[in-house]
């Protein structure tokens, strides 16, 4: 996620607003766990189980890539391209049609990766994405290896399950988000009006495994907000509407283009309140992610339950939104 401090040349950057003061009245308090069993067959309305170990395997690989490339996976650095190549190789092997889009920012070449699952109505596209780059100060495993790995594992679950969606499925991994959503803005700006109109919704996942987590739902579109809130409520997990990430991630250019956006977030450098600790656990008075944009944002800087739960919610949303039933 883009930092809240001003960065030169950062488009679409908006000021943050204060966290909502009250909890959602309809939210229920509880916890969730992700089964470690193998994925069950998926129907049109039923996403498969995704073991958290499978998500963490991707994060371990991203950590190794950072370790081998100067400690980060930032735009213009070798670690970013190696991260993109890793994800692309997984998608290519699973049967996706992948496209690498190049752009230039701060004098360096950047890359977006877009993956299309064959089939589905091309006039109705369900799009899920995340940014893949880190800041230069660290490996960026929660920000945003977590979202990137979660989206990747959902995409791979589509392939493993043999799912045939009614709508067309597309997944994206964006470059240079930390410089001001440069990659996603470049992608949206290059879409024709006709192609924009075919995207029914864009779902964004930026930081979904924070070590002192909250469960935040994007509130920009009531239909998509309700979809996620209902999923969490059914599992007795309270949610709040996200304000910490307002305009600070890759949903912004899609939203600016008139495309409905939704998403999930587990918190960055805002401080967890007593009320939030009471409903979610964790430690009040500390940041949701004390290693946000720091060298300590490593593979140890994760909450497995939040990571697995949010990825399960992503899968459920992708399945439901892409089915006409």
UniProtKB/TrEMBL annotation:
Domain Peptidase M28: from-to ranges: 112-317
Keyword Signal: yes
GO molecular function, one term: metal ion binding
Keywords carried by this UniProt record: Disulfide bond, Hydrolase, Metal-binding, Protease, Secreted, Signal, Zinc
Domain of life: Bacteria
Signal sequence interval, chain numbering: 1-38
Gene3D superfamilies: Zn peptidases
GO biological process: proteolysis
SUPFAM superfamilies: Zn-dependent exopeptidases
Keyword Protease among record annotations: yes
Necessary cofactors: Zn(2+)
GO cellular component, one term: extracellular region
PANTHER family: METALLOPEPTIDASE M28 FAMILY MEMBER, PEPTIDASE M28 DOMAIN-CONTAINING PROTEIN
Known partners and oligomeric status: Monomer.
Family: Belongs to the peptidase M28 family. M28A subfamily.
Name the UniProt record assigns to this protein: M20/M25/M40 family metallo-hydrolase
Organism, scientific name: Streptomyces morookaense
């Amino acid at each position: 996620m883009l930092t809240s401090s001003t960065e030169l040349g950062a488009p679409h950057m908006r000021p943050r607003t204060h966290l909502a003061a009250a909890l959602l009245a309809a939210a229920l308090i509880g916890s969730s766990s992700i089964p470690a069993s193998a994925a069950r067959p998926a129907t049109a309305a039923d996403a498969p189980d995704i073991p958290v170990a499978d998500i963490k395997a991707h994060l371990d690989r991203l950590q190794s890539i950072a370790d081998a490339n100067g400690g980060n996976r930032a735009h213009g650095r070798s670690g970013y391209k190696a991260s993109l190549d890793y994800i692309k190789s997984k998608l290519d092997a699973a049967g996706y049609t992948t496209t690498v889009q190049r752009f230039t920012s701060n004098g360096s070449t950047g890359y977006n990766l877009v993956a299309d699952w064959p089939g589905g109505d091309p006039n109705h596209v369900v799009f899920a994405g995340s940014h893949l780059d880190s800041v230069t100060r660290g490996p960026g495993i929660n920000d945003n290896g977590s979202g990137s790995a979660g989206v990747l594992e959902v995409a791979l679950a589509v392939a493993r399950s043999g799912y045939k969606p009614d709508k067309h499925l597309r997944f994206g991994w964006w470059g240079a988000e930390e410089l001001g959503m440069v990659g996603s803005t470049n992608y949206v700006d290059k879409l024709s009006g006709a192609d924009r109109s075919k995207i029914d919704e864009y779902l964004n996942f930026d930081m979904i495994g924070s070590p002192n987590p909250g469960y935040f739902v994007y509130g920009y579109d009531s239909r998509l907000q309700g979809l996620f809130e209902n999923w969490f409520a059914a599992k007795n997990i309270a949610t709040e509407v996200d304000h910490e990430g307002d305009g600070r991630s890759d949903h912004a250019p899609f939203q600016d283009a008139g495309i409905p956006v939704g998403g999930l977030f587990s918190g960055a450098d805002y401080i967890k309140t007593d009320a939030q600790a009471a409903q979610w656990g964790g430690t009040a008075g500390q940041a949701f992610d004390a290693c946000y944009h720091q060298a300590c944002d490593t593979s140890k800087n994760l909450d497995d339950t939040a990571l697995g739960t949010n990825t399960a919610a992503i899968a459920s949303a992708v399945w439901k939104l892409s089915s006409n039933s």
